[in-house]
Amino acid sequence: MADVDETLKRIESHKGVIGTILVNGDGIPVRTTLDNSTTSQYARLLRSFTALASSAVRDVDPQNDLTFVRIRSKKHEIMVAPENNNLLIVIQNPCE
Amino acid sequence: MEKEMTPTLLSNSFNGTTNSSGSGEFKVSRRSNQKIKFAASLNHNNSDKSSNSVPHKKAIKVLDAQRRDVTPLALGPTRLEEPQSKKKPLSLDDLFFNTGANIFKSSSVADVASSRLFCSSFSSMSTMESGLLSRSCKTEDSFPLQDVTPPPPAHSAVPLERKCLPEENPDQGFDVTLTETDTFSLLDISPTIISEDAEGAEAVKQRNIHYAEFCKSRMANDNYSERSTQAFVGEPKTKHVQTNKNSSVNKSTTATSWDMYDSLCKPVDAGETQEADQEDYFVSTKKEKDKAEGSLSGDTGSTLSFVVEMETCVDSLTAESDQDKIVLSESFQNSLLVMERVVVLNIFQPMLAAFRGLPVLKDPYSTEKKPAAMEQSTEDKDWFLTPTLERLWAFACPLSIGRNITSMTWNKRNPDILAVGYGDWSSGSPKPGLVCCWSLKNLMWSERIFPCHSSVTCLDFSANNPGQLAVGMYDGSVAIYNIQAKNQVACIANSRDTSKRHQQPVWQVIWTKQQLQLSGEERDEVLVSVSGDGRITKWLMLSDGFNCIDLMVVKRIQDRKEKPKGNQEKIENVLLPVTPVLCVDFHPTDAGIYVIGTWDGRMHKCSFSNSAHFLDTYNKHFSPVTQVEWSRFYPDVFLSCSADWTIQLWQLDTMTPKMSFTSVQSPVDSIKWSPNCSMVFAAVYRQRMEVWDLSSSILLPTAVHHAEPGVTLGSVLLAKGSDCVLVGDSGGRVTVYKLKNFRAGKQKQVNNLDDIMQAVPGSLND
């Protein structure tokens, strides 16, 4: 437990990381370092996106599953790790 | 019902009309001049159920002048009395009549006439009214008039009790006869086919034949002509029917192939929990709709996936317990690991690209300023200039900073894993050491950290079991760690309790494969350690623990040349019967041969099987030999370095070194061949690190790196598949440098070292 906490803090303190969000199965953000409105927006949008990506992956091969999604945009990169319907979202600006 | 009035009667009084019940029709004939007194009738006027009960029906009485009862009998059928009528609600009329009757009944006989008259007029009017009323009401079927409660019968009654069964005793039984009616024939269609055995069959046949012939002759016959007729077609009539609209609900689902796969594979108990969670499912979708999301949840209709959601979230109410639940799950920790790696890789992407030899791409959307253009132009000019070392990054984490690095090694199977040993004994009392396993995927945090009870002096990964790391420590213990396990259970062997363990620091551990003649399987690996107590020992994992067998004990050799030094040496002989062995390396192809370097500067070639004698001795160094390493590209060639500031290149069976390298007056702590190129090796001195490229120069190092002030360099390592050098220093950092502009390409590998060696004039003599 302490390890996990420590790791999360480390991630949050890495260079260029804008924020991290942990979303539970209900779509409710459980832990976040951003403000509320941004958090809920990200949680909502990325949940449906991840579901779509997972559906696409599994449609081709049902034994496969989605492990990680990265969306690289002009300004930053959004990384989503889905497991068990929870989402771990990290937004990073790598070229800062 | 009729109302008959005769003129005579009119003059007298108002005629009572027959009432609706038809209890009686009064017909007063003309001839009777009698005064017919009417008695008020008590009867109910109408209603189908009502009955004229005899007892209370005696209101109407007709008496002639002689007081004879000439009350006419009822002509129509009377109704049966209902015994329960007492409780039925009364109508207004009945009440009216009742009172009238009561009034009437209470009077005495003497007043009957007058009262009767009075009553009759009164009642007849009321009768008429009621008759009117009743008439008007008669058409209604649902008229609620009930029977009147029968007052106690005052007069005898005409027996009008039963409808159709007069004069029968109710107690007497009666017979009921059941008869069957005749069969009704509802439909009778005679058949057009008769059996051949029937009676009229012959006649029918004849008729048939006759008819067939007749039909044939019909065509030409003039008697018959074809005519067409038209039948009336009934005009269709439109009928409309109205029904309730069938309400329809649209329901759709997307059956994806993974959905079907999940349904097949999910265990049965998921279905049981489905009903319990259905409400939650609906609740949650409602919640989501309330948030006005265009979410996918309602559309895909994949209930199973949402059931899984509900299952994980059904009992967690607060965000905290949710968080704990998520955080403690193993898959989350996996995701966390991957996420951290990804984040770090993002940060270090250009450096890692350089490490791997990939072209470093500039981010087109980067918001940085652009001195890159300038750099590039200068770089082109630098192309022909000196080879340099470019710093890429440093492996450092808060736990490791400040510790002195003593050894580094790559994993034999996964070249991205680096094990680094930390230890410090310079202050006299050795501190606890540390082993960190770094991965190239996470440059900022070591994913495996194993604390050791003593300073770590050397490390080596096993080739057969890539997860096993052998660690040699300053207090003489040898331990094996399984780096795949988590921290607590990682140490799978420790020689602390072994009786024959080393008493002096273990200077090198090495895994070596021994030749097994028996089986064609992979060769067994043996862990060999050398230590300051002069012993070269082989370690085995036996059933009763970790044990060792001495391969050899290196005793101090009496060197005749040193004898003239006299007593000094003798004393040394007595005090130090064994020589600390500082390094060992096994021949790459002939695993039975190995070379050791000792404290007194001698190097011995030994054999695995021969534990008593050395095969050969190489004498050149006069200070402790710190490192020996065979070349991977040239068999029989090995490199040695020592504290006497020199590096020597030897060939097996040649007792003098082929080449010698010296650059600064500083002890050489370590040397390593490059795994990529046969002519490159790196050497680390206290304050500097040098990379020698023999193809460009054999007198001077090709690249030199100076340590930062205050930091001494302890260990060096070259990366396989990459032109990089790793340097570990006393500050706990492993810095990675890229060798730039080294033109030691692969073209010049083969035979070149031999050429170089032969080019050197003769062998170097002492």
Automatic annotation (TrEMBL), chain B:
Record keywords, A-Z: Cell projection, Cilium, Cytoplasm, Cytoskeleton, Flagellum, Repeat, WD repeat
Gene Ontology biological-process annotations: cilium movement
Localization terms from the record: Cytoplasm, Cytoskeleton, Flagellum axoneme; Dynein axonemal particle
Composition bias type Polar residues, residue spans: 42-54
Compositionally biased spans, kind Low complexity: 8-24
Any GO CC annotation of this UniProt entry: dynein axonemal particle
Pfam family, one: WD40
SUPFAM superfamilies recorded: WD40 repeat-like
SMART domains noted in UniProt: WD40
Gene3D superfamilies tied to this protein: YVTN repeat-like/Quinoprotein amine dehydrogenase
Spans annotated as Disordered: 1-65
Residues in WD repeats: 618-660, 661-702
One Gene Ontology MF term: dynein heavy chain binding
Ranges annotated as spanning the membrane: none
Name of protein: Dynein axonemal intermediate chain 4
